[in-house]
From TrEMBL:
Species of origin: Streptomyces gilvosporeus
Residues covered by the HTH lysR-type domain: 2-59
Gene Ontology cellular component annotations, sorted alphabetically: protein-DNA complex
Coiled-coil features, chain-numbered ranges: none
Pfam family for this entry, one: HTH_1
UniProt xrefs under PANTHER family: LYSR SUBSTRATE-BINDING (PTHR30346:SF29), TRANSCRIPTIONAL DUAL REGULATOR HCAR-RELATED (PTHR30346)
Keywords: DNA-binding, Transcription, Transcription regulation
Family, per entry: Belongs to the LysR transcriptional regulatory family.
InterPro entries: LysR_HTH_N, LysR_subst-bd, WH-like_DNA-bd_sf, WH_DNA-bd_sf
Entry's Gene Ontology molecular function annotations: DNA binding; DNA-binding transcription factor activity
Name recorded for this polypeptide: LysR family transcriptional regulator
């Protein structure tokens, strides 16, 4: 039995002409796409790809199956849109994924108002980073995301995803009160050349934004603490073990021994709601409306 994920992988290779481009469009790794295609070949009983220069191309069997996959995925999208249009009643599941700071700061009040207004709505929430959440949205496992995009490293979002900005905020350098620069209001990132950093894990938007910000000022970052939660990063900062980049909404609560300085050049972070355009439903619309009030 062919699975939708494997058919999506084949359709993406057919549309983009390479496994690497298909992987980028699906927010997957090339090896992950290759694994899906290998399983699909075994299920199909025919080779679906063949070498073509440094890349690959579809075989005759691959083109036939990709054509069927395109029609099947189009029919599935149409079915989802038809069901979403059955009515405007806000009920049933609403599966939300979001970065931790946005989940903690924006969602509780919004969900409380939403559930009070629509008692038959059943929201669920998972936290995580955009790199992990976007594939779940694209695969239909989540309905709505709260994702971050840093001004110096805008988040690439695939076609077919609608975004709505919710918050635009300043980003601060968090220093221990014992740091020589702690009494300042602003700090040039070039002044932090010998600093040890705490940041979210590699591959996440905060990590890449930190690396690019420092390298732009001629500093090679020394990131020794890879922890996802801002409160944990601030605990390390308070003990003088590290420095961290902290968005405005994550400054509170913070240990009293932490000082926050604006950066030069200034850094900003946006929080955005994101959902599949074709799968916009009454629950998604209602939640976005509450979040943007």
């Amino acid at each position: 039995m062919f699975t939708l994920d494997r058919l999506r992988a084949l359709a993406a290779v057919a549309a983009h002409g390479s496994i690497a481009q298909a992987a980028r469009s699906m927010h997957m790794t090339p090896s992950g796409v290759s694994q899906q295609l290998a399983k699909l070949e075994r299920e199909a009983g025919h080779p679906l790809l063949e070498p073509h220069g440094r890349s690959v191309r579809l075989t005759h069997a691959g083109r036939i199956l990709a054509d069927h996959a395109d029609r099947l995925l189009a029919q599935l999208a149409a079915a989802q849109a038809d069901l979403a249009d059955l009515g405007d009643e806000v009920l049933g599941p609403l599966r939300i994924g979001g970065v931790g700071s946005a989940v903690r700061t924006l969602l509780p009040e919004a969900l409380a108002a939403l559930v009070a207004a629509h008692p038959r709505l059943a929201p669920t929430v998972v936290d995580g980073e955009a790199i992990d959440l976007l594939p779940l949205l694209l695969n239909g496992e989540l309905d709505l995301l709260l994702i971050e995009s840093w001004a110096n490293r805008p988040l690439p979002v695939p076609e077919g995803v609608t975004q709505r900005q919710l918050v635009s905020e300043a980003v601060y350098v968090a220093l221990s009160e014992r740091h020589p620069l702690a009494d300042r209001d602003t700090v040039d990132l070039a002044e932090l050349a010998d600093t040890v950093w705490a940041c979210c894990p590699p591959g996440t938007e905060p990590y890449e934004a930190l690396v690019q910000s420092l390298r732009a000022r001629g500093v090679e970052p020394d990131i020794r603490y890879a922890v996802a939660e801002h409160p944990t990063q601030l605990a390390l900062v308070a003990r003088g073990l590290a420095t961290s980049l902290i968005p405005a909404m994550s400054r509170y609560p913070a240990p009293p021994a932490v000082r926050f300085l604006l950066t030069h050049p200034p850094l900003r972070r946006d929080i955005r709601a994101a959902w599949l355009t074709r799968s916009e439903s009454p629950p998604v619309r209602a939640c976005v409306a509450v979040l943007t009030v």
